[in-house]
Specification:
By secondary structure, the protein is an alpha+beta fold. The protein contains two helices and four strands, in the order E-E-E-E-H-H.
Length: 73
């Protein structure tokens, strides 16, 4: 993942320390947004996604077709 610093816009690199995340070499800003921390999904919520129409293969394919049509028009 490539992140840019929210404070100054410089490319941030991931750091390996007791606190996982990215650190800006310019201003020292730290974040863990790209790591997906604090985004645990319960088993029930994950199971319910199997029936979510947004993840139906036909709907996913149709969304790409619509994008192609939008690009042409």
């Amino acid at each position: 993942m490539r992140c840019s610093c929210k404070e100054c816009g410089v490319y941030m690199t991931q750091t390996e320390s007791e606190r996982l995340g990215c650190v800006c070499p310019e201003c020292g800003y730290r974040c863990s947004d790209c790591l997906g921390t604090n985004t645990v999904v319960s088993r029930e919520a994950l199971r319910s996604l199997a029936f979510d129409p947004r993840f139906d293969p036909a709907n996913i394919a149709a969304s790409f077709e619509r994008r192609d049509e939008d690009d042409d028009g």
